[in-house]
Write a structure and sequence with these properties.
With 754 residues, the chain is α/β, with parallel strands linked by helices. The protein contains 33 helices and 21 strands.
């Protein structure tokens, strides 16, 4: 099937459409229903009657946007009417939810009269926290938005006007910087004079462009003062009438610094591009076919051409989804009465700044592993970059507060953390650890220091103040890679071949391993050749506080050097690998998933203690379950006795100050009703959040099934039981995984100091 048929099947498959309503509170018992509806619902109703602002406290209003259209200007389809526009409006709701966790009702109004549209929408103000106008033709859209903004006390935003303005504005800020031109001096030409073009031109002026340097063209050519005086253009177009004799688009583009296309495909030739000023910026945003193709624009010139389109298959996509979800997120969360120019400008500036930052691996992978580094081919962030939410929304919220349209105040730092939590429980949990790490950063040795991911992770650790990274490896290679990545970063590098401590470290390794068959000569070779040994001795001697490795090694070979050199903690005989799995409303720690193949009762007990201690680093009070296929003696054999005996050891240990029980089946451990009803004698005071598997095979299988089928996000493996902080990553981990483990390692090191 082609794209059209695939889309039809996508929309008609059960249930039809793309959105549904789901409940956010329990509705399982008669009492639940009496709270949700009659008679309990009367209490919040009366409270809202007394104080209307309590609607934000008691209802979904504060997270609800109405997407309103009459279908008069839908995508590239034109006036197809309200009913036919519904799939588009549902799609808009999907984007709001996917990118900013905002709920949406789509409202299709079968009406062309602006007065009736304004009346209908204004009457719905009690329902919504904001209104997104969509696909309403010009010039009516201008009047409708202006009047609704005046009449309503919630934000009203016409995305077709302002979305493109904000996203392309962010690109323009960066493009002007790259080609070393001042915004106020840019000669800017617009092809198209509809709602989007007019709003974009006005927004560029608010960013610093000079209105007298903007030339706007419609289908009849340059909009001149003569045409405006003759009534040939409407009042909105007339705002950008030029003091010239006239001409067509080709005339306007001659000598221009910037071309902004919001018209139709294929109307710009290579000759027109060649007539522009040096190092031109071309935003050809007609969809699906731009005014000139990316290839033709690039081939037309030998100097720098910064090219953006509305398409995802070319660099610098101007995609409105980078704007409206996050504008509304910030506006809703401070209960703004408007989305004003300050808030739009803040969004554009935040997007521009984000494009200058290192790009997460997940984003790079989502776009086919193409290089994404600030420069002519990357002046606008990608829509799938999760950081847009907690970079743009706080900037918008802050601008709302500073400009006086916010009805409530937020602490922007705390607010950014709350937004990260919306992207997943794992971000919320890691924020706890990373904040602790920032309070007292420690020196973290990165064994595979020449690896590109390690260098990028080191940059992020230093940039975020999480750790003081030390890259181990060939200095020249590390410095060359850092420069190639374009990172403004002067990392600390320790080169085992050139560092004066190599001999001292070799002596120490020999001292530790001489009765294990390691000669002084072999120790020298190991220290100089294997940064895992060098880094392990570095940590053992106190020259670094923690070690990360494993990115390019098999797990056993990466774990062996730190075990040999650093060893287990004073109160530990064994180490274990733990994964933290985060679900929407739950966190569990799974052990052991990477180290001990067939643990006995003593090993299981010790691993449980280590894992409980780790859980507390994440501010989780541990409740541990020893897992089996048996429930409290229902099966009695050697396999089920081991976890049962481990529980006895833990119950007899005076140092154990957390609840632990077993042996028990996995569902018994995590389902509260089973624990309370069938096994009410259990010492667990709630569902288990530390799951200790009976052997490595079960642990590894179990956490991976939970991750893949249960939709959990996994952080780890985190190594517990070492004498000093060491974490061994999985091969192929992403930069964010390295940074997360560095944060855990720093908190480990902080605990060592206490």
């Amino acid at each position: 099937m082609g794209l059209d048929d695939d889309a039809r099947e996508y929309h008609r498959s059960e249930p039809p459409g793309k959105i549904e309503i789901s409940t956010t509170k329990p509705t399982n018992t008669q009492r639940d229903l009496s709270l949700a509806y009659s008679p309990g619902v009367a209490a919040p109703c009366l409270d809202i009657d007394e104080d209307p602002d309590r609607a934000f406290e008691y209802t979904a209003k504060g997270n609800m946007v109405g997407v309103v259209s009459n279908g008069s200007a839908v995508l590239g389809l034109g006036d197809i009417g309200a009913q036919a526009s519904k799939p588009v409006m549902e799609g808009k709701g999907v984007l709001f939810k996917r990118f900013a966790d905002i709920d949406v009702f789509d409202i299709e109004i079968d009406e062309d009269d602006p007065d009736e549209i304004v009346r209908s929408v204004a009457a719905m103000e009690p329902t919504f926290g904001g209104i997104n106008l969509e696909d309403i033709k010009a010039p009516e859209c201008f009047e409708i938005e202006e009047r609704l903004r005046e009449e309503m006390d919630i934000p009203v935003f016409h995305d077709d006007q302002h979305g493109t303005a904000i996203i392309s504005g962010a690109g323009l800020l960066n493009a002007a910087d790259i080609v070393d031109k001042d915004l106020a001096d840019l000669d800017i030409v617009f092809s198209g004079a509809g709602a989007s073009a007019i709003a974009t031109a006005k927004f560029y002026v608010s960013l610093g462009a000079d209105a007298s340097n903007i030339t706007m063209c419609d289908s009849s050519g340059i909009i001149t003062e003569e045409r405006a005086a003759a009534g040939d253009v409407n009042d909105y177009k007339a705002q950008f009438a030029s003091e010239v004799e006239g001409g067509d688009l080709a005339d306007a583009m001659e000598g221009a610094d910037v071309f902004v296309g919001l018209s139709i495909g294929g109307i710009v030739s290579q000759e027109m591009v060649r007539s522009m000023a040096e190092n031109p910026v071309i935003f050809a945003m007609a969809n699906p076919d731009p005014e000139i193709t990316y290839e033709d624009a690039k081939e037309a010139r030998e100097d720098t051409v910064i090219m953006g389109t509305g398409r995802s298959d070319y660099p610098n996509q101007v995609n409105n989804v980078l704007g409206f979800p996050f504008l509304f997120r910030g506006a809703l969360d401070v209960r703004a009465t408007d989305i004003n120019e300050d808030m739009k400008r803040a969004a554009a500036e935040a997007l521009a700044e984000l494009a200058r930052q290192d790009v997460p691996d997940a984003v790079v992978k989502a776009y086919g592993d193409q290089p994404l580094k600030f420069g002519p081919e990357y002046v606008i962030p990608k829509p799938l970059d999760p950081r847009v939410l907690f970079e743009v929304a706080p900037a918008v919220a802050e601008a709302a507060m500073e400009s006086g349209v916010a009805r409530t105040e937020v602490d922007t730092d705390e607010y950014a953390e709350r937004l990260e939590a919306r992207l997943g429980k794992s971000r919320e949990m890691m924020r706890v650890v990373l904040n602790k790490a920032r309070s007292r950063p420690k020196r973290v040795a990165l064994a595979e220091g020449t690896d590109e991911k390690m260098i990028r992770a080191a940059y992020q650790m230093a940039e975020q103040g999480i750790a003081d990274p030390v890259l181990l490896g060939d200095r020249e290679t590390i410095e060359s890679t850092t420069a190639h990545l374009g990172l403004e970063f002067d990392p600390e590098v320790v080169d085992p071949d050139a560092d004066g401590k190599a001999d001292v470290y070799a002596d120490r390794l020999h001292e530790l391993r001489k009765r294990k068959g390691v000669t002084r000569s072999e120790a020298g070779e190991l220290v100089r050749r294997d940064t895992n040994y060098f880094g392990s001795v570095m940590v053992e001697r106190g020259d670094a506080d923690a070690l990360l490795t494993g990115l390019t090694h098999h797990y056993p070979s990466a774990l062996r050097p730190p075990l040999q050199v650093i060893g287990t903690a004073e109160d530990a005989e064994y180490v274990a690998g733990v994964y933290m799995l985060t679900f929407k409303n739950r966190v569990v720690f799974c052990a052991d998933t990477t180290v001990n193949q067939a643990p006995d009762a003593e090993v299981l007990a010790e691993v449980t203690k280590h894992t409980a201690k780790l859980a507390r680093r994440f501010n989780i009070e541990p409740r541990a379950a020893m897992l089996s296929y048996s429930n409290f003696g229902s099966v009695d054999n050697e396999g089920t006795r081991k976890p049962r005996e481990a529980v006895d050891l833990l119950h007899d240990d005076p140092e154990v100050d957390f609840s632990v029980d077993g042996e028990m089946q996995a569902d018994t451990a995590v389902v509260e009703d089973i624990l309370e009803d069938t096994y009410d004698f259990s010492t667990l005071d709630g569902p288990a959040n530390v799951l200790v598997f009976p052997n490595l095979e079960a642990g590894n299988i179990g956490y991976k099934l939970l991750q893949r089928l249960g939709g959990a996000e996994a952080i780890g493996p985190m190594l517990v039981g070492m004498d000093q902080p060491v974490h061994v990553m999985q091969r192929g981990d992403e930069v964010k995984d390295i940074v997360n483990l560095a944060g855990v390692a720093v908190v480990d090191a902080q605990d060592e100091d206490e």
